[in-house]
Write a structure and sequence with these properties.
The structure holds 2 protein chains of 2 kinds. By secondary structure, chain A is an all-alpha fold. Chain A has a single domain (68-286), classed as MetI-like (MetI-like fold), CATH 1.10.3720.10. Chain A has helices at residues 3-44, 61-64, 70-101, 105-115, 122-133, 138-144, 156-180, 184-192, 197-225, 229-233, 242-251, 256-286. In chain A, helix 8 packs across helix 9 (197-225). Chain A is globular and about 70 Å long. Chain B has helices at 13-21, 30-33, 77-87, 99-108, 120-128, 188-196, 209-219, 229-242, 254-258, 269-278, 307-317, 320-330, 337-341, 345-348, 357-360, 368-371, 374-385; strands at residues 40-42, 65-70, 90-95, 115-116, 132-133, 165-177, 203-205, 246-249, 264-268, 282-285, 291-301, 363-364. In chain B, strand 2, helix 3 (77-87) and strand 3 form a beta-alpha-beta unit. In chain B, strands 1, 2, 3, 4, 5, 6, 7, 8, 9, 10, 11 and 12 form a 12-stranded mixed β-sheet that branches. The A-B interface holds A 48-53, 68-69, 71-72, 75, 123, 130, 134-136, 151, 153-154, 228-229, 232-233, 236-238, 240, 244-245, 247-255 and B 30-31, 33-34, 36, 98, 100-101, 103-104, 107, 124-126, 128-129, 201, 204, 207-209, 243-244, 246-250, 255-256, 259-261, 368, 372, 374, 377-378, 380-382, 384-387.
Amino acid sequence: MKASSRVADGRSRRHGVAALLVLPTALWYVGFLVAPLVVLMVMSFGERSPNGGYAPAFTLEQYGNLTTRLTPLTNTLGLAALNTVICLLVAFPIAYTLALKVVGSWRLVLVALVVVPFWTSFLIRTYAWMTLLGANGVPRILGWIGLGDIQLLNTPFAVSLGIVYNYLPLMVLPIFVSLERLDRSLIEASRDLGAGPVATIRQVVLPLAAPGILSGIVLVFIPVMGEYLIPILLGGGKTYFLGNALADLFLQSRNWPFGSALASVFVVGMILLVAGYLALTRRLVRAGRETSLL
Amino acid sequence: MTNGRHPDEPRDADLITRLAIRRRISRRHFLAGTGAGLGALALAGCAPAPAGSATPPAGANLGDTLNLATWPNYHSQDVLDNFTADTGVAINVGVYGSTEEMEAKIRAGSSGIDVVVPSNYAIEGWVADKLIEPLDYAKMPTFVKADWNSRFMDQAFDPGNEYSLPKNWGTTGIAYRSSKVTEDITTWKQFFDLCANKYAGRGLIVDHQISSFGSAAVAMGFSLNTIDPKEMAEVEAMLIALKPKLFAISSDVQPPLRALDTWLSVAWTGDGVQVGRDNEDARYVVAADGGELWIDSYTVAADAPHKDAAYAFIDYITQPAQAAKETEFCLFPHANDKATALLAAEVSDNPVIYPSAESLVKLEYAVNATYNSAERAEAWARIKASA
């Protein structure tokens, strides 16, 4: 056999093996991502059958009705943005301290402690907050010290608290990772060159942590946009997210086509958001900075 | 109100224990509503056979499995176990938080579900869409129509009980804690007034269009089933104004009522019984100005894979002796008079479980048109989305 054909042979075999290795992933994506999305899209052009569910049709009516869900959309966008910012403000000092101030085995312990709450079910932790914020929890203690009748549970405050509490690790960890890889001599250089602590953080640490911050923002913002349980459990159903609107469309109104249209638009919006994130990180990489998690 | 407590009567000791150890869970508990509570509990056929309680048709091959879609805490484990022991059919119990959730499953098809227990308002649509099949009474040899209370049989949603046979019924009423609420609440009008004014921040309405929007409609002098645009607009405006003053819109009625986060609440019969059992000051009233009366019924899914087992099961569990056990467990009233006659006195004489016939006169069943009204669904969505 000639050398060239042996090379070609090996290459095609390698292609075959590669294809085989990719197959499970491809099947997974087609079966559990593409196919459901296709079903969703098809249903979104249908009609609600008179007794609920889906009736085949081709109409844009459902998309025309989307404006009726503007309030939950703006609610969700506003609260997701607000809570992502709160998460960031809380997470950055934690990540900064963990990455740059704590040394040795303590760091490992403290990072582990950030993750430990994840070992308990999200639902149980949120239920615990219900007890803490309910009439027999913190408000009673506040009552003892004379702060009167304060309601915490089922307020926007409780929803924010639940979101920040549950999503904080998703913000802390990527920022921690990017700060940990930060070259400390850069901070020393900044100090040597006369920058104060604030200027150092603003001009040296923050830009270098940008990929981690960006990852954290995406990791928190996207799931919060789809949040459904926290508004129910800690918001008492009074804070209405897009996720709640969607659940109601399927489980109360049984309007599958409208629910599908809303979900389709939501999914497309989130895809655009992730695409924007990827473009931004690519630009950061091109600008010579390290890439990040996602 | 708290007739559930007779600890010194030995005859009732067993019942009391079972009442006490039951999980305190609302009938339409949100967990099930979110799907998180969905789960199947396989009951192995290992219990010893009791003496002559089940009568499986001789020589019938029922198979070994039955899939039941039902509500949380609705069935006596004894009854299910005995059925399994007598027939060899193991029952997979799927727990759902709402009729709508059950519908999502059987509408999608190939759910494997045999017996479904929906509320009355869904049945007409399910029949029209052929999701359930006409009951084959020939396969239910012990069914005796004369035993059943005509108040709950042969209703408009299923004339002649062609498709459905009642499991239990109940009301949508007002639960409140009299240690905090000084008034005797008797009407929906009073309830919504108190929620909006004197007890702002302490009221709860359930997250269910039919029960909450319907009760608000009754408070304003309309029908529970109103789909008149003008009337619905008035109800919507009232509820949007009320919403900021509510503690919650949530079907998880019991925890806040027990913790005194809420003092007054829309509630279903079971919530009233269970909270009342544990709290002397808890009251449950059927409103004098009207409201919802409902029936959950056994139905057989059209694509049920185990039809013979399904009929054997419905036949068995609606027999008076079994129905009485079921009722003593779930504490919702039963439509079979012979079963009611067999109940322990503290259940059948409890006015929360079995309200007087007069108090039911003004109540209405929610109808299919209400359940499927796009306008009502949208009004409810606007209320929930409002600030």
